[in-house]
Amino acid sequence: MKFNSDGTYYIKYSNGIIEQGGIVSYPNGGTRATLITLPIKYTNINYNISATNRGNTEFWSESAEFLIHSITLNNFKVQAERGNKIYWRTLGT
Asked: Which residues have CB under 8 Å from 25's CB, separation 6+?
């Protein structure tokens, strides 16, 4: 596992699968989109993205929402509001 200075990580498995992940934090108030640049560019756009805000113990509320969009081989956007902290992970080749 390789951890980067920006808080992202990646693992390259021997079968060619790449796992990448990180955390996006949002200040209280407002809505905005954050560009997530993957540590390693995927070769296939059909990679899986999973995300949750359930690990956030400071700002969690039942109404917290987020959206993942603008997906490319090496980045995607996460849009959130209300002081969320989004934990994301991708799997692909």
From this structure: 84, 85, 86
Token pair of 49 as six digits: 């993205």
Q: Which residue has the tokens 């060619």?
A: 16
- Tens digit of pLDDT for each residue in 14-54? 999 999 999 887 766 666 788 999 999 999 999 999 988 76
Please tell me the number of Cα atoms within 13 Å of 11 on its side-chain side: 10
* Token pair of 24 as six digits: 């996006």
Rounded to whole angstroms, the Cα distance separating 20 from 49 reads 9
Average pLDDT over residues 68-73: 94
Question: What is the per-residue pLDDT for 6?
Answer: 84
DSSP state of 75: E
Question: What single DSSP character describes residue 82?
Answer: T
Beta strands in the chain (DSSP E): 2-3, 9-12, 18-25, 31-37, 48-52, 66-69, 75-81, 85-92
